Amino acid sequence: MEPKRRGTAAALKGTLISDLKSLVRGIGLQGANPLRRRLGDSIFTALVFLAAFTVIILMAMMVYELVRQSLPSIEQFGLGFLISRNWDPINNIYGGLPYIYGTVVSSLLALLMSVPLSLGIAIFLSQFAPRWLRSPLGILVDLLAAIPSVVYGLWGIFVLAPFLDKTVEPFLIKYLGGIPIFAGPAFGVGLFAASVVLAIMITPTISAISREAMLNVSRDQKEAAQALGATPWETVRMSVLPLARPGIVGAIILGLGRALGETMAVTMLIGNVRQLNTSIFAPAYSIASVIATEFAEVTEGPHMAALIEMALILLFITLLLNLLARLLVQKTGSRAARIKGRS
Amino acid sequence: MSEGLRIQREEEYEAVEQTPRLAPPLTKPEVPPHESAVEGTDVEISRDSELIGHSAGRRRSRNFRSKLALTLCALSTVIVMVPLALILFYIVYQGAGALNLSFFTSLPKPVGESGGGMGNAIVGSLILIGIAAVIGVPFGVLAGTQLAEYRNPRLSWVVRLMSDILSGVPSIIVGIFVYTLLVLTFKQFSAIAGGVALGILMLPTIARTTEDMLRMVPDTLREASLALGIPRWRTITSIMIKTAGGGIVTGIMLATARVAGETAPLLFTALGSRTWPTGLDKPIASLPVQIYTYAIAPFDAWHKQAWAGSLVLVLIVLLLSIGSKIFFGRKMKRAN
After folding, report:
1. What does the pLDDT read at residue B147?
2. What are the φ and ψ backbone dihedral angles of A93, each rounded to 5 degrees?
């Protein structure tokens, strides 16, 4: 790229105005004048690289801005911020434990509900379903991803939460109430309702990416198992799932990343109560929901720094998860290709 | 053709199943040992496999297990359809009842007064999406062009990684970033800030689809154009991007659909407003934020409006995403 850039500078010095004129007239096509052509190319190359660098600069600026704005909070509370449950805007003492707890628990519960379903869908749509059914069913599952999260929240408040409150939660409390996490009373709106909606929201992500990974498994592998007399399910278990495993794990991690950062549906359903409770039915709070509810009310000072530090923690967790997931998803693709090449 | 082959194979499989046979013990296909050797379940299978062809009972149980697994997989697909159907049903059922012409044309009414609409929020959303597109589309398409057309592996690797990561950043964090960048600097919530936040969210999707679409254009086209002496930038703009245009437009529509429903990044950038938009440097109402405000307020009339707003929002989003898929499907068919 280097020689080209030097070319830009030289060309710009000499023939800028006349060349701009020709550019407007679109004479570049005739290409009679090599200098002219080089100018067009240089300007376009510069634009293209500028856009590419914008992506990098945006990410760097995002991390820099969040670190800069949360510095007062980081300096004052240090690592204690992560384990303190004090959140006292009047005395300006902040600790993020209840939010981190709510975020992590709701996301893990959502994974627990979503992963078996998503893998079932992925296996069905990639291996078992009749050809003509695959694409319509896939589109329907993808529709779940298209519904805006605020609409999930609205539906959750007025349909799901009352339903959970009246039927599912009393049932679980009656039969499993002895275990602390299922202890009563039922609230409707709370950690559990938020997890259920999150599970619905991340299912299309997990199922679509793991389906892709399963489709990448080479046909020879499946046929080898079939030739040895494996039943369809044994074929899936012995050749599809092991080979697609990195992609499936990557899909689950991406789903986790989405669940951790999901804001509106969780804010509307988790109850927004700052407490640590062993029962999953109790209301709680999450990192994203505390930012959504409190950020608009503060304009400066330690309170804002503390909220931005919460955002920074969330950003770092999702960055790490995304990196890991991308590497794993890439690995499936390349490994499937390698095995294909070998056979 | 491949389908026919498959079906034939499956029939063969069934036929083989029915005749007694002396198959060698089932050995596992080529799977790295560490991948599955740890699982107890596989041991069970290899115990089964020694009995292949010896015991009809074993075979029946293996077939039964296979059918059971198939049923469970199909069942999970059905289970996921339930919330989808319920959500769509409630949006249409609750929303259609509250929807009328004045919903599109009038301003929100204060609490206690009946009627009113979200006209300002619909206009506001369109303005915000417009600003987002002005920012996201050129940067996204150009960045995608760099990834596909300029062979610079190290830079491309970083850009690709960064745009993948950017697409995984929670949208509320983009909201905070734009807040610190624009709102704090100009001391003003504004439509511009909201549009920039949405534009940043559009950028990675557009960049990656543009890259994928450009890569699908046959190399011969590019080479033919360059051989005719057409400069590289004209080759890219008039030949490559034009050929891949359908796919790129699909990507743009999908990205638009994604940001049209975004609420979190607008909460502290565009803020919200109860009047018609007055300027791009002023706070502006948007459909998703209005739905959120109304949904968590304790008034029944507002809840109805929130449902109506959701119906409109979901229709916009679904039309964009389904429309883009149909559009793309037709392009592909014509290309074949």
Report:
1. 92
2. -120, 130
Of all residues in chain A, the one with the smallest CA distance to B76 is A117
Tokens of A296: 């608009």
B295 vs A288: CB contact, 8 Å cut-off?
A: no
Chain B residues in contact with A339 (beta carbon < 8 A) = 30
> Mean pLDDT score of chain B, rounded to an integer?
83
- Global confidence as pTM: 0.83
Q: Is the pLDDT of residue B51 over 90?
A: no
State the Cα–Cα distance between residues A13 and A28, nearest whole angstrom. Answer: 19
Position A26 pLDDT exceeds 70 = no
B256 and chain A: CB distance < 8 Å anywhere?
no
ipTM here: 0.84
CATH superfamily assigned to domain A83-342: MetI-like (1.10.3720.10)
Question: Looking at the predicted structure, is the pLDDT value of residue A78 above 70?
Answer: yes
The CATH number given to B105-335 is 1.10.3720.10
Contact A155 B237 (CB under 8 A): no
| B111 has a pLDDT exceeding 50 | yes
Quick check: B130 contacting A, CB < 8 Å? no
Per domain, the residue ranges of chain B are 105-335
Q: Lowest mean pLDDT: which of B2-6, B113-117, B286-290?
A: B2-6
Q: Which residues lie below 8 Å from residue B212, measured CB to CB, with a gap of 6+?
A: B247
**Nearest residue of chain B to residue A204 (CA atoms):** B80
**Helix/strand/coil for A94:** strand
Does the pLDDT of residue B287 top 90, yes or no?
yes
Q: Which of residues 37-56 of B touch A (CB under 8 A)?
A: 41-42, 45, 49, 52
Cβ pair B261:A61 closer than 8 A: no
Rounded distance between C-alpha atoms, residue B213 and residue B145, angstroms:
10
Q: What is the mean pLDDT of residues A148-153?
A: 96
Residue ranges per structural domain of chain A: 2-77, 83-342
Strand spans (E) along chain A:
87-88, 93-94
Q: How far is B91 from chain A (nearest CA, A)?
A: 8
Average pLDDT, chain A: 85
- Rounded CA separation B183/A67 (Å): 17
